[in-house]
Amino acid sequence: MLALTTACGQEKGDQSPNGQNVGNQAPAKSDGYGAGSDGYGADTGDAKEGAGKAKAAGQLAVWDSKKLGKVVTDSEGRTLYRFDKDTAQPPKSNCDGACATTWPVASPEGAAPPPGVDKSLLGEVTRTDGSKQLTIDGWPMYRYAKDTKAGDAKGQGVGGTWYAAAPDGKKAAPAAEAEPPAETAPVDPAGLSTRKDPKLGEIVVDKNGMTVYRFTKDSAWPMKSACTGACLEKWPVVPPVEKNDTKGILKKGFVVFDRPDGQRQQTIDCWPMYTFSGDKKPGDTNGQGVGGTWYAAGPDGKPVGAPK
């Protein structure tokens, strides 16, 4: 693998360190989460006076909700939430200003894990104003101003971005939606495979059947990605896949690209691979030809249908 990576001419640049990096990285300020926007889902007028003040999380507990599953709560029994526009690796809050009035942050002061939950999951992150915020597995934790008593979970699903947090930091989900036991779970399809598209021919798809793309502004020698920042919101990277978890894919140059932003990206023939947020279901190829630079990837890593 080392030899192949060197052969691709990979340039790692300044990589983010592994792990949660809790408390050592100042988050970027919120962008466009104004009052009433679907960024945080509620007008500031809905928030109670003083709701934006951070309160100590204290001894955390778990509320077993029939509707939501296991939900983590603070010492007052108030539901804790996570925000899809935040990040956990590295931990960063994108809820500031009016957003933080509607969604008051949970302070890490006195925080202790619920019984049976690993203490190492708890951490903290420094916000833009210098204050500290509790994190669970890297995800910043919040309360919701409209929750007035223990057991309220009125923030669930607000704006399509706010969800009650499970004790492990994931989104809370009822047991019926949890993964089936290993002995009964269906066998996963290959991490990367190919399918025959009626218009494009044989193209690469991920384990969910979603089309995999190549960006013609990237390079394989040296291995570089020209898709950074906001571009990655539309074109998420394909995560690393083991060679033995592929079907019909070229093995030459099948290496992992350690991106300068800290993400790890699968390549085919040393070309970075992506999916497209505009594809909503398996079989979609809405990213084909976008901007004259994005094309479905063939099993050899070449852009299918791109001008020669």
From TrEMBL:
Keyword Lipoprotein in annotation: yes
Biased composition regions of type Low complexity, renumbered to the chain: 170-190
Keyword Lipoprotein annotated: yes
Amino acid composition bias (Polar residues), ranges on this chain: 15-24
Keywords recorded for this protein, A-Z: Lipoprotein
Top-level division of the source organism's lineage: Bacteria
Region annotation (Disordered) ranges: 1-59, 170-196, 280-308
Pfam families recorded: Lipoprotein_15
NCBIfam families: SCO0930_lipo (NF040526)
Name used for this protein in its record: SCO0930 family lipoprotein
